[in-house]
Amino acid sequence: MKATNISIIIAIILIGGAFMLTQSGDDNKQITNANNVSIVDGKQIIEINAKGGYQPRKSVAKAGVPTIIRFNTSGTFDCSSSVRIPSMNIGKTLPQTGSTDIDIGDSKPGTLKGACGMGMYPFEINFEE
Ligand SMILES: [Cu+2]
User: Fold this and answer.
1) Ligand 1 mean position to 53 CA, how many Å?
2) Cα(20) to centroid of ligand 1, in Å?
3) pTM
4) What is the pLDDT of residues 53-76, one digit of tens each?
């Protein structure tokens, strides 16, 4: 009886450890800033993929430039299709598959934070001068 209990506890610890390792690996991937910022016809375009969260989770862009945040979805059925940027009063429902532009005007220096409708998938954009 006791041996069974101990082996169950060990199994739970091992599974939990493996799960946490996978999680932190994903985090590292998301933090890496891909080349997702471009300037087209004088407009800065920041591309963010929305599916099971937002990628890249952190973007670095220029401040003081007319800016569009472009959310790309591809078979997105989770709540990252409901995107919010509270400080700008922005709330959008993205199509399951497609591309949605949000024009935020001239970007202000600082960090712009957004998240899914429930607030569990965050993302941020650092606008640098
Ligand atoms: Cu959510």
Assistant:
1) 8
2) 20
3) 0.74
4) 999 999 999 999 999 999 999 999
